[in-house]
Amino acid sequence: VQLVESGGGLVQAGGSLRLSCKASGSLFANYALGWFRQAPGKEREFVAVGSWNGDSTEYADSVKGRFTISRDNKNTLYLQMNSLEPEDTAVYYCNYYYYWGKGTLVTVSS
pLDDT tens digit string along 87-110? Predict the structure, then answer.
């Protein structure tokens, strides 16, 4: 399984970004696809996860109402991030089972 993230960048506070994660290889419906992030000097933390069929989603309290996780039918996972805050600055990682992407950097300036 390979996970390749894209879409990170520099944005001002209050702005939006959409991250993408292209998943390839043998994926099974038993496991969900999700997003984590790691800010400088901090532990990696959960951001959002979506069930394989998209029926259910979960979000960290810090991003509820601002971020939306979604997936298309071509194994691409998205994270729409609105109303970004400087505290959202981090490397964002895509996760599937025990597989991780290399991450994409999101920097939010104040």
Answer: 999 999 999 989 999 999 999 999
Output b/e per residue, 90-109; b: 16+ Cβ within 10 A.
bbbbbbbeeeebebbebebe
Q: Which two tokens stand for residue 37?
A: 């992030």
Read off the pLDDT of residues 63-86 as tens digits, 9 standing for 90 and up. Answer: 999 999 998 877 899 999 999 999
Q: Which of 24, 44, 7 is nearest to 99 (CA)?
A: 24
Hey, which bits of the chain come out as E strands?
Answer: 2-6, 9-12, 17-24, 33-38, 45-50, 57-59, 67-71, 76-81, 90-96, 99-100, 104-109
Q: What is the DSSP string of 26-44?
A: ---TTS-EEEEEE-TTS--
Which has the closest alpha carbon to 35: 44, 46, 24? 46
Of the pLDDT bands very low, low, confident and very high (cuts 50, 70, 90), residue 53 is confident
